[in-house]
């Protein structure tokens, strides 16, 4: 009789646990990136009986496994460009203030006041720094975007310019190109042209007297078709007086690999500067940051500079069910999960990222409700069996009195 009670109690306990799992699934059906849990059961045999199938006596039920369903949840778009969702394999890596590392599929991130990408609990999202070639550098760390970037002094300028071939000897033309010093101050470099002979012009450079002094001059020779001849790009040296780095050398890009690049001509057309460019920038302030499907973080600044600075790192495990749940949609690595393998989205076994989206819970409410009814009926049946066994036992006791 004790064995019969044990079998019934094992059923009550098993179905109570199943109802608890179902209840948790339903409660988290709207929790971002939640993975539904499920139970599997195993028959318990009476160890005192024969192992023969025909003679083995069941001794109840036990919970065999409690596992999560790691299938992909739907991706829902949000209005936050820093929200991220993993499509495929991988967990985001976050680190708390004590330096402890956790893993999550919950990609609701934002920039804090320091320009660092964090989750809702102010844990820092981890990623690789990128070099100038867009390659990852070192180990993953905090993703912090500078809110301002330093100015870049002009080192090269180009002009798309025509000097009128009909200009008389001693005729002149002047134009300006704006450049930047190392402090981000913008000022004009003036170039004065003077026609000295048929097909030949001289030039000199100057800057405003309050800025400093420019040293740069030379001769420009054109062939009969109006094309510039020569091989060496001229330079202009700027001696600045405003505290910026000095001297500042600016190369005037006129030739490509020993031949003219066609940006300075002498045609029978008005002398005019139609376009100019230079590689310097003013000090820039952060205007926006974007994240692409490989996790590359690109910052755009007010001075027109766009830089790829970081790439978000992902981790995968040999056994996701071995991860330890620590709450708030976070997991911790364990011996059972295996060591985290870290990489970037879109490579090897790592999934891709969806920016401006979040992964929904993969709970199927219809399936959970159906399973709840089955588990409820099984629990009630066990409870009825327990009552019946109690009545039988009481009857037996009464007979022995």
What does this 3D model show about the protein?
The protein has 401 residues and is α+β, with helices and mostly antiparallel strands. The chain has 3 domains: 2-71 and 362-400, no CATH class; 91-149 and 285-359, no CATH class; 156-278, Tick-borne Encephalitis virus Glycoprotein, domain 1 (Sandwich), CATH 2.60.98.20. 15% of the residues lie in helices and 42% in strands. It contains 2 helices and 32 strands. It has helices at residues 2-27, 365-400, and strands at residues 37-45, 58-68, 75-77, 84-87, 91-95, 101-104, 110-111, 117-118, 124-130, 136-142, 148-149, 156-162, 172-180, 186-197, 200-206, 212-215, 217-222, 228-229, 235-240, 248-252, 255-256, 259-260, 264-265, 272-278, 284-291, 296-301, 306-316, 324-327, 330-332, 341-344, 352-355, 357-359. α1 (2-27) packs antiparallel against α2.
Broad structural category: alpha+beta
Shape: rod-shaped
Q: Please, how many domains? A: 3
Proportion of residues in extended strands: 35-45%
Q: List the total number of helices.
A: 2
Low-confidence spans: pLDDT under 50, at least 5 residues?
Answer: none
Q: Rg to the nearest angstrom? A: 37 Å
Task: Give the mean pLDDT.
Answer: 91
The number of E-state strands comes to 32
Summarize the main sheet: 9 strands, antiparallel
- Helical content band: 10-25%
Distance between the termini: 18 Å
